[in-house]
Amino acid sequence: MPGNIGPELTDNPDGKAPHAEHTLRQWAYAILEEGQLEGVFSRIIEALLITLIIANVAAVALESVASIYAKYHIFFKEFERFSVGAYTVEYLIRIWSSVEDPRIAARGPIKGRLAFAMRPLMLIDLMAFAPSYLGFLFAVDLRVLRIFRLFRLVKLARYSPALPALLGVLYAERSSLFASMILTLSVMCVSGELMHLAEGAVQPRTFGSMPDAMYWAITTLTTVGYGDEVPITPLGKFIAGVTMVTGLLLFALPIGIIANGFVNDLHRRQFAITWSMLKRQPLFSGFDVESVTEILDSMSAKLVREHAQLALTGQLATMFYLIVSGHARAEHEGEEIDLGPGDIVGEEAMHATSLYARTVTARTEMRLIVLPGEELRRLARKFPLLGRRIRQEEPW
């Protein structure tokens, strides 16, 4: 097909790799920005960064134990210096490689990087290590710096696909959640006022003012119930009972909104590969029912976001993709090709040691059918027609 990825890269006459810095920057961006590359090295880098974050949080907690800190204070100090250095290098590499995002590159190398540095996650990254330099240079209270070091825990958000989904749900359902919050505040005020009227004269120190009564109302609505403020009149007890039941209903409302939105978002992000979907793909035209069914069992579904990289020039080709929906851009030696539904990416995976010939970046959100290289080669041996089509030896 016209949009399919072409042959592997050929060597340059002078023996030098083309666009070496550009390729290295693409590679760094693909690994650090949400772990877009599949492979052992990418997983190792991600595991090391996650381990360093968890170790730092553990160190912050253990330093607060006087006996442990007195015995291992030198280790804690050296570990903090190592962590700050590692986070600084990671931050600088993210800034340097950020121009691989077309949205950043469009603003220019300086303005684009500045805009990238102002993103929430990048600000969190900066706060995770920048205040520690004050502790190295000046006499700053370490307890204050400990608060900033806990920002490193928030960095785990980069490595949790579910967390961005949850934040997206909160943003999408913001109107409903805001209405739920207004309703809760209204009930709190009404319950506090009723309790103030019912118990204010009997317990002036506890319910003699609206703020005190509202404090009781919010602890009761949330079902916390500290028990430090308790009604003693029959009317007050009746109001308390109604407030408790209302609190259960009110706080179930936002939980239901978030849970429903989260489930719907997960269903949108993951899609089922059906037999009819596979049969409609030009790559499998002419295959019988049994063949398509067996191929289907080997495949998995994947949804990628806009600007995610599917393949990177020079990387080991381990995955094969069939585009179900969305569009991508393939780049090689200044040439760009648009890819769309029905096109394939990563036919280099037909050979165990081949490298991706082109860099392929998603232009829109995409739904992909994915085959690991081992499965692709097995199916190509069993179904020669599939292998010939992927190698473009036979038209689809």
The main sheet comes to: 4 strands, antiparallel
What is the rounded distance between the termini?
7 Å
SS summary, helix count: 17
CATH class of the largest domain: Mainly Alpha
Relative helix content: 55-70%
Segments where pLDDT lies below 50 for 5+ residues? 1-18
In the CATH hierarchy, the architecture of the largest domain is Up-down Bundle
What do the pLDDT scores average to? 83
Structural class: alpha+beta
Strand content: 5-15%
The outline comes out as extended
The arrangement of helices and strands along the chain is HHHHHHHHHHHHHHHEEEEEEEEHH
Overall description:
Helix 1 packs across helix 3 (66-97) and helix 3 packs across helix 6 (120-137). The chain folds into 3 domains: 33-160, Four Helix Bundle (Hemerythrin (Met), subunit A), CATH 1.20.120; 172-269, Helix Hairpins, CATH 1.10.287; 275-390, Jelly Rolls. The longest helix has 36 residues, at 234-269. The relative contact order is 0.10. The radius of gyration is 29 Å and the shape is extended. The strands form 2 sheets. The chain has a 4-stranded antiparallel beta sheet with strand order 1-8-3-6. A 4-stranded antiparallel beta sheet has the order 2-7-4-5, with no helix packed on it. Strand 4 (328-332) and strand 5 form a beta hairpin. The termini are close together. The protein has helices spanning 20-32, 40-63, 66-97, 102-105, 109-117, 120-137, 142-149, 151-154, 162-172, 174-199, 204-207, 210-221, 234-269, 275-280, 289-297, 373-382, 384-390; strands at residues 300-304, 309-311, 319-325, 328-332, 335-339, 344-345, 359-362, 366-372. The protein has 396 residues and is α+β, with helices and mostly antiparallel strands. 59% of the residues lie in helices and 10% in strands. It is built from 17 helices and 8 strands. Mean pLDDT is 83; it is low at 1-18.
